[in-house]
Amino acid sequence: MTSEKVRLWALSTCPWCRKAKLWLTAHDVDFEFVDIDLLSDAEYDAVVADVQRLSGARSFPVVKIGDTVIVGYSPEKFARALGIRA
To answer: Could you tell me the pTM of the whole model?
Structure first.
């Protein structure tokens, strides 16, 4: 498994975001996450702008594994970026 830093940007109401969190947890991946819809207005605007620059989209979830950015729930891409079998 990779030792790369893993970050997840999600929406608290998004079922695909919840699936991404569950997948990472089930595969014992240490990750940081933020539910951007629970941020204050100023924080929200800044984080959405950062995520859009990073991913090129306004879709969630966004997972960053090292330098790899994955938009959407994609267990195959998560596993490949982490160097694990899923």
So the answer is: 0.90
